[in-house]
Amino acid sequence: PIFLPLTVLSLICLCQSPEASVFQWPPPLPSTERLWNPVAPVILLGWLALHALLYLLPLGKVWYHVLCVLIVSFSGFHGLCVTSVLLMLSLVLGAPFGYLFELLLPLAVCATVLSFLLATYLYIRSFSAPPHALAPGGNTGNPLYDFYIGRELNPRIGNFDLKYFCELRPGLIGWVVINLGMLMKEVELRGSPSLAMILVNSFQLLYVTDALWNEEAVLTTMDIVHDGFGFMLAFGDLAWVPFTYSLQAIFLVMHPQHLSLLRAAAIITLNGIGYYIFRKSNSQKNQFRRDPTHPSVAKLETIATATGKRLLVSGWWGLVRHPNYLGDLAMAFAWSLPCGFSHLLPYFYVTYFTILLIHRESRDERQCRAKYGKAWESYCQRVPYRIFPYIY
């Protein structure tokens, strides 16, 4: 709870500094004036209110997952579309989106404060939740750990699922908006956006659009099914995602890069390959879960488990155990490449994300081994590589 917010603020300061050196000591410390701006809380609260209102619009669809029914009134993809229209209107009217560059630190501070307040509320209310609503790993009796991990699995206010709302809506779409603000700041400084900035914006917009278009798939993820909703997810959704995933765009404002067409084509190809692996493998998995008899997956080889479910051992899931992670990492590397090789800072995301996915894979490995037993051992023998073929 202390180190992560400091990391976010430090990364923003480094990106905005002329040196942008991760080895600079002492690191650049912002003045108090840079950390606070009365406009920041207004923007943040207005942003959350907008997406909460869209979430509650009476255009209902009911989605199910293994633990509860989620009533989703307005999809995240439609929320992105509405946001895009509002952004275009604002740009036409002359809204100074480049000012987001100066507001990054105050916005990150406000998002951090909001995360602490939300996590405190979640921790207190969890003691009135019924036992079946608690997360298995968030009730150790250690107050700090339980505050961080989260005691309650899917806290709600009426039909408003707090974790599900925060998981995709304000942070992911906010990431896209921050990227746009950095592009507009570059236009202010240099007259037009650079090819590097356009690639970063385009790649990450595609990623966010895909996540929101396939929003239902998040219902089977570890965050929703296993993890409680505490500071870790609250801060991750509201602060970490929008302010660290946009580091490449923030970096390019102060450190412009020239890209040749050949290099740009190579980066686009890498991102395209990563996206293809990511989308195809996830679609295959989700289709198999929804309907194992569907023609696209019916002929794939499977292993029966004691739970009655079957494990895919061919197709994408016969290549490595987590082909979606492989595609994810290829895309993450492609997002950093437009920033060149003169600084390590733009590669923070792909470094952090590699560690995150390897750690997540190990958690998934333990859970699957406990759940499927000998069937999982047979799967591991058939598919020995976890993420990277012939490497790991």
Question: Any overview of this molecule?
Answer:
Pathway: Steroid biosynthesis; cholesterol biosynthesis. Catalyzes the reduction of the C14-unsaturated bond of lanosterol, as part of the metabolic pathway leading to cholesterol biosynthesis. InterPro entries: ERG24_DHCR-like, Sterol_reductase_CS. The structure is a single chain. The chain has 392 residues and is mainly alpha-helical. It has two domains: 218 residues, no CATH class; 134 residues, no CATH class. 61% of the residues lie in helices and 5% in strands. The protein has 15 helices and six strands. The chain has a two-stranded antiparallel sheet. A hairpin with a 4-residue loop joins strand 1 and strand 2. Helix 1 runs antiparallel to helix 5 and helix 5 packs antiparallel against helix 10. The longest helix has 30 residues. The chain is globular, with a radius of gyration of 22 Å. The model has no long low-confidence stretch (mean pLDDT 89).
